[in-house]
Give the backbone structure.
Amino acid sequence: MTDAGAAAIEQAELGPVGGTAAATPPIPGVAAGGGWGLVLRSSLRFGRTRLGLVIVVVIVLVAVVGPFVAPYSPYQFVAAPYAPASSHIVLGADELGRDVLSRFLHGGYVILILATLATVLGVGIGTIFGITAAYRRGALDELIMRSFDVLLCFPAVVFALLLISVLGSKLWLIVVAVALTHAPQVARTMRGAAVQLTGREFIGYTEALGIRTWRVVFGEILPNVTAPLTVELGLRMTWSIGIVASLDFLGFGRQPPAADWGLMINENRAGLTIQPWGVVAPVIAIALLTIGCSLIADGLGRAAAGIEREVDTSREP
């Protein structure tokens, strides 16, 4: 028997560190077998994950470093409206004669910030409620999941537009609106992952020790569902980018004369056939960012599935 096999048997006999669990074999998704680090390292073995990571890093660098290297102010008039590309305006001018390249370099960081905050908030809300519903079951489970089912009836953009039209166009409201569109799907996924753990012996022993519910949820169940949680973060980030950009395009995000990729598409679409770069540049950036996040999420999903299969195989007699 190999050293790794002996160590696995010894760990199964002794239980997790801290002595609060029964002598049960490893389960899919546990921190020791499928935690954040292992899922991330395993996903990097896939070429799609590495490609997606490169794409995302490049776009993020453009959005973060861009404002410091832009040749002009995003509000400065440098040429005639829709002027073609030249030596001093590499991507030409927009509908008001402002430098497209400068506005492009200034227009990405807000989308990234809003999308990231919305993703973290939405996944956080969905995870907490999903795991709580799986653990408590009964009436609380029904109340949580049926409430989220109501939110699922609304398309994401429609729900965000409804919320913004009632409360006004504010950046923090965009974050909340997008997060609330993510929470129901995340809750359903995390509940499905957590409900498999609630009947495990180590949860029963933890409850017998009189540990509070929130400590069971965050200390015992949450570390065991890190694999699906990692995948959800990647998927929801992809959706957040698209929704935030759509709201900007529709005029519910940053307002003129702010430089914003979604807003640039709306402002310059009338001159698409005359000077296309005002539309093409932000469209390419948003598309690449979405594709990159999708590739990363796909790689994370494949890695998580592979870890589950490995753990399931290790439990066979």
Summary: The radius of gyration is 24 Å. Residues 205 and 211 are 10 Å apart (CA to CA). The chain has one domain: 27-312. DSSP finds 14 helices and no strands in the chain.
